[in-house]
């Protein structure tokens, strides 16, 4: 049995809002080229599959039928700005419905494979479109593949699914879809919504009636560094997942919390994002018999961040983590220079500076600690956990 399943084909590059749009398909192309040069795609532990666009019956598990029809119409040349289709964030393009539906099919495919026991880990780096809601496109997201994957798991019999969102932007669409559903725990670690799109994800947002405590939000101040970000992640995510005891973990690995990303104000490095992925991987083995679905997401530093973060994610899923000091392949660096005119990174990254675990004590003078405590105070008592002490 392969260890991991990756959805990939050049058809996924058709999710393309056009020249100048931040979500360039080049980020996927460069990631897969780097993964190939690193030997990850030829690993005996990996199967790579392609998928056709998801049919409407799958899309309509998380989207209204009239919205799906509106996406089709927009792709044919009839924008619907009131639906978020034909806006600056989500301009329409030919083939948009099929391109977006293919992302959904990829995440549903790997969720099926993980739940059925055909693989332990499933990855769709083209996925993670977490802002789309039932009836509206938002934030570069037409259809919500993460929500569709979770819905498929529930329909297949899963009773507890944990969703962890590491994107710099709040995972609002997924949270909204399962707001009242105690079968799904959503945890989002993001930049404070008062300073960044989509403006949601307050610490006090903890879930709807009958599902109080099943949404958790950790809104962090701008300029939070790797050390603070890891402290926040460590202070909230593992404890909640251990209480919830999910049967499968679905995680979104947006790379836009990185310091070089142009669309956020966080200051997180490649190594910190790698460390968080490793913790989620370990928690999947500890709590969910290894069942882990890992998705992409945001990330707009196309050359020097996204390929490094997502290649590291794939390596982690293959139980073959990359060495930070490993030189990146010359052929890949040359390709980057040819297609972008930019100099690619020589190494994966540098080691994250020391960071303090929550058990070392709360510092009321620290902005990150205050944000973490607010998140813990909002949700931990609902799980019988102490917000002040581990």
TrEMBL record:
Pathway: Ketone degradation; acetoin degradation. Keywords: Acetoin catabolism. The keyword DNA-binding does not apply. It comes from the Bacteria. One of its GO terms (biological process) is epigenetic regulation of gene expression. Residues 21-314 form the Histone deacetylase domain. SUPFAM superfamilies: Arginase/deacetylase. It holds the Pfam family Hist_deacetyl. The keyword NAD does not apply. One of its GO terms (molecular function) is histone deacetylase activity. Belongs to the histone deacetylase family. This is Acetoin utilization protein AcuC. It comes from Xylanimonas protaetiae.
